[in-house]
Design goal:
Number of strands: 4
Order of helices and strands: EEEE
Radius of gyration: 14 Å
Number of domains: 1
Bound molecules: zinc ion
Strand order of the largest sheet: 1-2-3-4
Strand content: over 45%
Structural class: mainly beta
């Protein structure tokens, strides 16, 4: 079985294969999004942060 959503790429930081993903971090009420590469090694998940991104689908409630 394979997930079709997973994009395997070579990580520019550590040079290993990983999966592109977006992580959310909340700081002082603001939400920041980071493009990361997830690596699944043995039974651990490691991630390399590529860059901060702006959010394409931002919810705007007023
Ligand atoms: Zn990496």
């Amino acid at each position: 079985m394979q997930k079709t959503n997973d994009k395997k790429v070579v990580c520019p930081i550590c040079g290993k294969e990983g999966i592109v993903s977006v992580d959310k971090f909340k700081v002082k009420g603001k939400t920041y999004y980071y493009l990361v590469i997830r690596h699944y090694e043995d039974n651990k998940t490691r991630r390399c942060i590529i860059k901060r991104i702006s959010v394409p689908l931002l919810e705007t409630h007023h």
